[in-house]
Amino acid sequence: MTPRTTFKQRLAHIIFDYDTFPARLFDLLLIAAILMSVLIVMLDSVAGIHSAYGDVFYILEWTFTILFTVEYVMRQYVAKDRLRYTTSFFGVIDLLSILPTYFSIFFPGTQYLLVIRFFRVLRVFRLLKLVKFVKEGEFVKASIIASARKIVFFLFFILVTVCIIGALMYLIEGEENGFHNIPEGVYWAIVTITTVGYGDIYPQTIVGRALAAVLMIMGYSVIAVPTGIVSAEMAAIKDKVNTDLSMHASCCESIPHDDNAKFCKECGRPLSR
User: Fold this and answer.
1) What are the pLDDT digits (tens) for 73-109?
2) CA 271 to CA 269: how far, in whole Å?
3) Does the pLDDT of residue 131 top 80, yes or no?
4) Nearest CA-CA partner of 164 in 182, 152, 191
5) What distance in Å separates the CA atoms of residue 55 and residue 72, rounded to the nearest whole number?
6) Which CA distances in Å does 125 have to 21, 131, 241?
Protein backbone atom coordinates (compact mmCIF):
# COMPACT_ATOMS: atom_id res chain seq x y z
CA MET A 1 0.00 0.00 0.00
CA THR A 2 1.32 3.41 -0.95
CA PRO A 3 0.64 6.57 1.06
CA ARG A 4 -1.57 7.77 -1.79
CA THR A 5 -3.84 4.74 -1.54
CA THR A 6 -7.38 5.94 -0.89
CA PHE A 7 -9.69 4.63 1.80
CA LYS A 8 -11.87 2.97 -0.84
CA GLN A 9 -8.87 1.13 -2.31
CA ARG A 10 -7.73 -0.05 1.13
CA LEU A 11 -11.26 -1.25 1.91
CA ALA A 12 -11.53 -3.04 -1.43
CA HIS A 13 -8.21 -4.78 -0.78
CA ILE A 14 -9.40 -6.01 2.62
CA ILE A 15 -12.78 -7.22 1.34
CA PHE A 16 -11.84 -8.81 -1.98
CA ASP A 17 -8.17 -9.81 -1.56
CA TYR A 18 -6.49 -12.32 0.75
CA ASP A 19 -2.74 -11.67 0.60
CA THR A 20 -2.48 -9.44 3.69
CA PHE A 21 -3.21 -10.00 7.37
CA PRO A 22 -6.21 -7.58 7.52
CA ALA A 23 -7.77 -9.25 4.44
CA ARG A 24 -7.32 -12.74 5.88
CA LEU A 25 -8.62 -11.64 9.27
CA PHE A 26 -11.69 -10.17 7.58
CA ASP A 27 -12.38 -13.45 5.76
CA LEU A 28 -11.84 -15.50 8.92
CA LEU A 29 -14.26 -13.33 10.92
CA LEU A 30 -16.75 -13.47 8.04
CA ILE A 31 -16.62 -17.27 7.84
CA ALA A 32 -16.99 -17.54 11.63
CA ALA A 33 -20.04 -15.25 11.53
CA ILE A 34 -21.58 -17.27 8.69
CA LEU A 35 -21.14 -20.56 10.55
CA MET A 36 -22.59 -19.09 13.75
CA SER A 37 -25.60 -17.62 11.94
CA VAL A 38 -26.38 -20.91 10.18
CA LEU A 39 -26.02 -22.81 13.48
CA ILE A 40 -28.51 -20.43 15.09
CA VAL A 41 -31.02 -20.98 12.28
CA MET A 42 -30.71 -24.76 12.67
CA LEU A 43 -31.07 -24.69 16.46
CA ASP A 44 -34.03 -22.33 16.20
CA SER A 45 -35.90 -24.94 14.15
CA VAL A 46 -35.86 -27.33 17.14
CA ALA A 47 -39.11 -26.77 19.07
CA GLY A 48 -37.65 -27.27 22.56
CA ILE A 49 -34.68 -24.99 21.97
CA HIS A 50 -36.86 -22.40 20.23
CA SER A 51 -39.24 -22.21 23.20
CA ALA A 52 -36.33 -21.59 25.58
CA TYR A 53 -34.10 -19.31 23.51
CA GLY A 54 -36.35 -18.10 20.70
CA ASP A 55 -36.05 -14.42 21.66
CA VAL A 56 -32.25 -14.61 21.88
CA PHE A 57 -32.04 -16.33 18.50
CA TYR A 58 -34.34 -13.71 16.99
CA ILE A 59 -32.05 -10.88 18.15
CA LEU A 60 -28.91 -12.70 17.00
CA GLU A 61 -30.49 -13.51 13.64
CA TRP A 62 -31.27 -9.86 12.98
CA THR A 63 -27.83 -8.82 14.25
CA PHE A 64 -26.08 -11.11 11.77
CA THR A 65 -28.44 -10.06 8.97
CA ILE A 66 -27.70 -6.37 9.56
CA LEU A 67 -23.95 -7.08 9.65
CA PHE A 68 -24.14 -9.05 6.39
CA THR A 69 -26.27 -6.29 4.86
CA VAL A 70 -23.61 -3.71 5.74
CA GLU A 71 -20.96 -6.02 4.31
CA TYR A 72 -22.95 -6.43 1.07
CA VAL A 73 -23.34 -2.66 0.74
CA MET A 74 -19.59 -2.26 1.32
CA ARG A 75 -18.85 -4.80 -1.40
CA GLN A 76 -21.09 -2.89 -3.78
CA TYR A 77 -19.35 0.36 -2.82
CA VAL A 78 -15.78 -0.84 -3.42
CA ALA A 79 -16.41 -3.18 -6.37
CA LYS A 80 -14.69 -2.06 -9.57
CA ASP A 81 -17.52 -3.49 -11.65
CA ARG A 82 -20.71 -3.52 -9.57
CA LEU A 83 -22.82 -5.27 -12.19
CA ARG A 84 -20.23 -8.01 -12.57
CA TYR A 85 -20.09 -8.55 -8.80
CA THR A 86 -23.89 -8.45 -8.43
CA THR A 87 -24.42 -11.09 -11.11
CA SER A 88 -21.47 -13.27 -10.05
CA PHE A 89 -21.96 -16.49 -8.06
CA PHE A 90 -20.82 -14.98 -4.77
CA GLY A 91 -22.69 -11.74 -5.48
CA VAL A 92 -25.98 -13.61 -5.86
CA ILE A 93 -25.29 -15.76 -2.80
CA ASP A 94 -24.37 -12.68 -0.73
CA LEU A 95 -27.73 -11.11 -1.62
CA LEU A 96 -29.78 -14.27 -1.10
CA SER A 97 -28.16 -14.79 2.30
CA ILE A 98 -29.74 -11.62 3.71
CA LEU A 99 -33.14 -11.49 1.97
CA PRO A 100 -34.91 -14.32 3.91
CA THR A 101 -34.77 -12.40 7.20
CA TYR A 102 -36.42 -9.35 5.62
CA PHE A 103 -38.99 -11.56 3.86
CA SER A 104 -39.83 -13.19 7.20
CA ILE A 105 -41.47 -9.91 8.25
CA PHE A 106 -44.19 -10.54 5.67
CA PHE A 107 -43.87 -14.32 5.24
CA PRO A 108 -43.09 -16.00 8.60
CA GLY A 109 -40.88 -19.07 8.28
CA THR A 110 -38.81 -17.88 5.34
CA GLN A 111 -35.95 -17.08 7.72
CA TYR A 112 -35.04 -20.78 7.69
CA LEU A 113 -33.88 -20.29 4.11
CA LEU A 114 -30.88 -18.53 5.64
CA VAL A 115 -29.05 -21.88 5.51
CA ILE A 116 -28.10 -20.73 1.99
CA ARG A 117 -25.39 -18.78 3.80
CA PHE A 118 -23.45 -22.04 3.89
CA PHE A 119 -22.49 -21.34 0.27
CA ARG A 120 -20.57 -18.30 1.45
CA VAL A 121 -18.17 -20.56 3.33
CA LEU A 122 -16.77 -21.53 -0.09
CA ARG A 123 -14.61 -18.45 0.30
CA VAL A 124 -12.42 -20.59 2.55
CA PHE A 125 -10.92 -22.08 -0.63
CA ARG A 126 -9.64 -18.64 -1.55
CA LEU A 127 -8.54 -17.89 2.00
CA LEU A 128 -6.48 -21.07 2.29
CA LYS A 129 -5.20 -20.69 -1.28
CA LEU A 130 -6.54 -24.10 -2.24
CA VAL A 131 -6.08 -23.35 -5.92
CA LYS A 132 -6.00 -27.01 -6.85
CA PHE A 133 -9.51 -27.49 -5.48
CA VAL A 134 -10.73 -24.46 -7.43
CA LYS A 135 -9.16 -25.80 -10.63
CA GLU A 136 -10.75 -29.21 -10.06
CA GLY A 137 -14.08 -27.49 -9.53
CA GLU A 138 -13.69 -25.65 -12.82
CA PHE A 139 -12.81 -28.95 -14.50
CA VAL A 140 -15.99 -30.61 -13.21
CA LYS A 141 -18.05 -27.54 -14.15
CA ALA A 142 -16.69 -27.57 -17.72
CA SER A 143 -17.43 -31.30 -18.02
CA ILE A 144 -21.03 -30.87 -16.86
CA ILE A 145 -21.60 -27.93 -19.21
CA ALA A 146 -20.15 -29.91 -22.13
CA SER A 147 -22.48 -32.84 -21.41
CA ALA A 148 -25.57 -30.72 -20.61
CA ARG A 149 -27.35 -31.31 -23.94
CA LYS A 150 -26.90 -35.09 -23.72
CA ILE A 151 -28.11 -35.15 -20.13
CA VAL A 152 -31.17 -33.00 -20.97
CA PHE A 153 -32.07 -35.36 -23.82
CA PHE A 154 -31.65 -38.35 -21.49
CA LEU A 155 -33.87 -36.74 -18.82
CA PHE A 156 -36.49 -35.98 -21.47
CA PHE A 157 -36.43 -39.65 -22.48
CA ILE A 158 -36.88 -40.68 -18.82
CA LEU A 159 -39.76 -38.22 -18.43
CA VAL A 160 -41.55 -39.67 -21.46
CA THR A 161 -40.91 -43.20 -20.17
CA VAL A 162 -42.35 -42.62 -16.69
CA CYS A 163 -45.41 -40.87 -18.16
CA ILE A 164 -46.14 -43.81 -20.47
CA ILE A 165 -45.54 -46.45 -17.79
CA GLY A 166 -47.54 -44.44 -15.26
CA ALA A 167 -50.50 -44.40 -17.62
CA LEU A 168 -50.12 -48.14 -18.28
CA MET A 169 -50.03 -48.91 -14.56
CA TYR A 170 -53.22 -46.89 -14.08
CA LEU A 171 -54.91 -48.99 -16.77
CA ILE A 172 -53.50 -52.30 -15.50
CA GLU A 173 -53.89 -51.87 -11.74
CA GLY A 174 -56.78 -49.44 -11.47
CA GLU A 175 -58.15 -47.60 -8.47
CA GLU A 176 -58.77 -50.78 -6.48
CA ASN A 177 -55.00 -51.33 -6.22
CA GLY A 178 -54.10 -47.76 -5.23
CA PHE A 179 -53.52 -46.21 -8.66
CA HIS A 180 -56.36 -43.67 -8.48
CA ASN A 181 -55.23 -41.60 -11.45
CA ILE A 182 -52.44 -41.24 -14.02
CA PRO A 183 -50.41 -38.68 -11.98
CA GLU A 184 -50.23 -41.24 -9.15
CA GLY A 185 -49.05 -43.81 -11.68
CA VAL A 186 -46.37 -41.40 -12.89
CA TYR A 187 -45.34 -40.74 -9.28
CA TRP A 188 -44.98 -44.51 -8.71
CA ALA A 189 -42.94 -44.84 -11.93
CA ILE A 190 -40.56 -42.05 -10.84
CA VAL A 191 -40.10 -43.57 -7.38
CA THR A 192 -39.47 -47.00 -8.91
CA ILE A 193 -37.12 -46.00 -11.73
CA THR A 194 -34.97 -43.99 -9.30
CA THR A 195 -34.74 -47.12 -7.11
CA VAL A 196 -36.18 -45.25 -4.10
CA GLY A 197 -39.21 -47.50 -3.63
CA TYR A 198 -41.27 -45.91 -0.85
CA GLY A 199 -43.76 -48.78 -0.91
CA ASP A 200 -46.82 -46.58 -0.45
CA ILE A 201 -48.10 -47.72 -3.87
CA TYR A 202 -47.19 -51.03 -5.46
CA PRO A 203 -48.64 -53.28 -8.19
CA GLN A 204 -50.57 -56.38 -7.21
CA THR A 205 -51.39 -57.97 -10.55
CA ILE A 206 -49.01 -60.25 -12.46
CA VAL A 207 -48.85 -57.91 -15.46
CA GLY A 208 -48.27 -54.90 -13.22
CA ARG A 209 -45.46 -56.63 -11.35
CA ALA A 210 -43.84 -57.69 -14.65
CA LEU A 211 -43.94 -54.08 -15.83
CA ALA A 212 -42.53 -52.97 -12.46
CA ALA A 213 -39.66 -55.45 -12.84
CA VAL A 214 -38.80 -53.97 -16.25
CA LEU A 215 -38.86 -50.48 -14.78
CA MET A 216 -36.63 -51.52 -11.87
CA ILE A 217 -34.03 -52.89 -14.26
CA MET A 218 -34.22 -49.66 -16.27
CA GLY A 219 -33.54 -47.82 -13.02
CA TYR A 220 -29.89 -48.84 -13.15
CA SER A 221 -29.47 -46.87 -16.36
CA VAL A 222 -30.70 -43.73 -14.60
CA ILE A 223 -27.52 -43.87 -12.54
CA ALA A 224 -25.16 -45.30 -15.14
CA VAL A 225 -25.99 -43.21 -18.22
CA PRO A 226 -25.52 -39.65 -16.82
CA THR A 227 -22.37 -40.79 -15.00
CA GLY A 228 -21.00 -42.24 -18.23
CA ILE A 229 -21.84 -39.09 -20.19
CA VAL A 230 -20.06 -36.79 -17.72
CA SER A 231 -17.12 -39.21 -17.37
CA ALA A 232 -16.68 -39.29 -21.16
CA GLU A 233 -16.64 -35.49 -21.30
CA MET A 234 -14.10 -35.39 -18.45
CA ALA A 235 -11.85 -37.76 -20.34
CA ALA A 236 -12.22 -35.72 -23.55
CA ILE A 237 -11.37 -32.45 -21.78
CA LYS A 238 -8.40 -34.05 -20.02
CA ASP A 239 -7.08 -35.44 -23.31
CA LYS A 240 -7.45 -32.01 -24.91
CA VAL A 241 -5.56 -30.34 -22.07
CA ASN A 242 -2.77 -32.94 -22.27
CA THR A 243 -2.57 -32.52 -26.05
CA ASP A 244 -2.34 -28.75 -25.72
CA LEU A 245 0.38 -29.07 -23.09
CA SER A 246 2.41 -31.48 -25.22
CA MET A 247 2.06 -29.17 -28.23
CA HIS A 248 3.26 -26.22 -26.17
CA ALA A 249 6.09 -28.30 -24.70
CA SER A 250 7.34 -29.32 -28.14
CA CYS A 251 7.00 -25.73 -29.29
CA CYS A 252 9.02 -24.39 -26.38
CA GLU A 253 11.72 -27.06 -26.75
CA SER A 254 12.17 -26.59 -30.49
CA ILE A 255 12.68 -22.81 -30.40
CA PRO A 256 15.93 -21.29 -29.08
CA HIS A 257 15.43 -18.80 -26.28
CA ASP A 258 17.63 -16.30 -24.50
CA ASP A 259 19.18 -17.46 -21.25
CA ASN A 260 17.12 -14.97 -19.22
CA ALA A 261 13.85 -15.62 -21.09
CA LYS A 262 10.88 -16.44 -18.86
CA PHE A 263 8.26 -17.00 -21.57
CA CYS A 264 8.23 -18.81 -24.90
CA LYS A 265 8.47 -16.38 -27.82
CA GLU A 266 6.13 -18.59 -29.89
CA CYS A 267 3.27 -19.64 -27.59
CA GLY A 268 3.80 -17.28 -24.65
CA ARG A 269 3.71 -19.99 -21.98
CA PRO A 270 6.14 -19.77 -19.01
CA LEU A 271 9.42 -21.61 -19.54
CA SER A 272 10.46 -24.22 -16.99
CA ARG A 273 14.05 -23.61 -15.88
Assistant:
1) 999 999 888 898 899 888 888 898 888 888 888 888 7
2) 6
3) no
4) 182
5) 26
6) 16, 7, 24
